[in-house]
Design a protein that fits this description.
about 375 residues, alpha+beta, Cathepsin B, Chain A, 9-stranded antiparallel sheet, 11 helices, 19 strands, about 25% helix, about 25% strand, binds zinc ion
Amino acid sequence: MVSKAALAVRARKGLAPRIAGLLAAAALSAGALAPATALAAQEAQVVGDLAAFNVLTDSAAPIARADAQEAASDALALDTGTLLLCYDPAAVAGVGTQVSTGHTSCCLAFCQAIGDSMLTGSAISHTEYAYYGDCASNPCASYDGWEDDTTDLADVIFEIDAGRPAVVHVAGYASSSHWVVAYGYQGVADPDEATLDNLLVIDPWDGALLVASDRYSRHGDGVIRLSTSGGSVTPSNGLGVYRLYNEVTSEHLYTADFNEYASLVVSGADWRGEGTCWTGAKDGVAVYRLYNSGLGLHHYTSDLYEMEVLVGQEGWVPDNDGLPIFYSAEDAWGNAAEGASTVYRLYNPALGQHHLTRDENEYATLALEQYGWNQEGKAFYALG
Ligand SMILES: [Zn+2]
């Protein structure tokens, strides 16, 4: 399991240089990027009109959780004791925070708005949850869509297993009576023994992503509110592979580190979370991420030889401390795991960029002449 300290360190590590690199790349004018490697293509040029491509990226809507995946996912969750909801941080960021809005008494309304924004994939105003239609005079409202019928943290674990966030009554830091949104858990061996050490939460106060016990203890009444909206988002057992899009560099970034994903989305460094993820394998063939600060680009490969060659060339360094960024669901002979889906790779010589997708329609469409992408076949296998 990942300790609190490790989570915090991991969220910080690599982030600053990456952002710095991307900003540096953004500062370069079109055509000024100097291709440094064979892979980054001699003909690499930044082209201005990417509108056609943007239209083709996945929608920000959460992926509906297929029934068939539910049992497997639950089993996997129990196996690792860690599960995160694969929500769209851009939708949640759109809700705002208590601090940013000055509505410092509206914590429960914010929590409900954040939770329903996760479930719907689009930002909802916290004022929608004002019980008397006026959150200024009746803050921290009650709301029919969220029930307060439990005090048991095990129910929070089960809600997250079912793809739903839960809202937990806590005390400390922001207020002696405060609410936070649980969107994941870690290190749970037995749900009945769960504590705030196990809950990964969003604090509506300032939008911080926390281990709940970093700031809070349980409130005396221990009340927990559960969504009754009927929706759900795709959970991943800590192995969800998330995709972001950078509007300045036109690059997609892939990571299995939810903290990195969420941090980049809220960093204001031009990243937009695409709310898209696939479930990575727990093991199999390791996929590494390389970063070129001169080009402001990342590259993904499971080919150790390719990695060795690239790292020997100017500009490319192993990202993520040289550790795998995710795994491909295949054995050493290239046989896909049962139920795995193919992640395809395309290359755009004009952009000098690769693109990964498991959407066969996107894979086919981008290869049309007007979009300029060349199909490169299977890159990896994803689970689910
Ligand atoms: Zn308010």
